[in-house]
Amino acid sequence: MMMKEKQYSAPALEKGISIVERLAVADRPLTMNEIADQLERSKHQIYRMLVSLETLGWLARTSDEKFFLTNRLFDLAMRVPPRRNLHEAALPLMRELSERLNQSCHLAVVSGSDIVVVARMESPGLLGFAVRVGHRMPIVESASGPVILANVSNSVQKSIRSMISGSDNSKAVSERFETFVKQVVDAGILVRESPLIPGVTDISAPVFENSSEQGVAALTIPFLKGGAAATSIEEAVDALKLTASGISEKLRLG
């Protein structure tokens, strides 16, 4: 006869997670009494846990003593990109894209106030501009940043903008970034001259996860004119859209 595996519990941890989950779905900050009533816990238990979570930076409170989640949970989640599923879905299609256009491409996700490259495919030709895996760049300076920001929920946009506002960005950089976000909202894709590499045009499209239609990544071609590539930017845009759509479909199907 098999012995039933012993179940361990951590009451304090369970209370803390319950509070975080409750505040995550609340449409407004909640008082201690409201949280205690909704979780059916004593006010004394809830108060101690609220103070601990606030001290650790997970919660903050308003001037009228109502509690809400800080950006820390979102920031933590963004530092653990869904790399494995993205790799499996993206790499074969990225290889086809690079071979078809004779151009490099890369896939990036948000990580805090940066984007981080999680996959890349180099150009099969003699010339190409490739970005290494693990490369980080501030969201406001990247081509991927506006594409992702334009395709996430309002709450996620708010969290990302909050982190961006805490960075040392000039007014000109911020305004240029918002112009690119609007371009993505209007056109569904970003096409811009690279502000960093002369002769390179950044072409970036969103990749969506599951059926939520929320952007999870950006697929970007640093389009290099001339050389062995006889493809036009217009053809590259069409091919990139098709590839991003294909990756999204593979993610939806699991």
State the main characteristics.
three-stranded antiparallel beta sheet; 46% helix; Arc Repressor Mutant, subunit A; six-stranded antiparallel beta sheet; single chain; 9 strands; alpha+beta; 254 residues; Beta-Lactamase
How much helix, percentage-wise, in residues?
40-55%
Question: What would you report as the Rg, rounded to the nearest angstrom?
Answer: 22 Å
- Kindly report the spatial arrangement of strands forming the biggest sheet: 6-5-4-9-8-7
Identify the CATH homologous superfamily of the largest domain.
Answer: GAF domain
Helix and strand element order = HEHHEEHHEEEHHHEEEH
Total number of beta strands: 9
Helix segment count?
Answer: 9
Beta-strand fraction estimate: 15-25%
Largest beta-sheet characterization: 6 strands, antiparallel
Which segments are poorly predicted (pLDDT under 50) over 5 or more consecutive residues? 1-6
In CATH, the architecture of the largest domain is: 2-Layer Sandwich
Keywords: DNA-binding, Transcription, Transcription regulation
InterPro entries: GAF-like_dom_sf (IPR029016), HTH_MetabolicPath_Reg (IPR050707), Tscrpt_reg_IclR_C (IPR014757), Tscrpt_reg_IclR_N (IPR005471), WH-like_DNA-bd_sf (IPR036388), WH_DNA-bd_sf (IPR036390)
Organism: Altererythrobacter lutimaris
Domain IclR-ED: 72-253
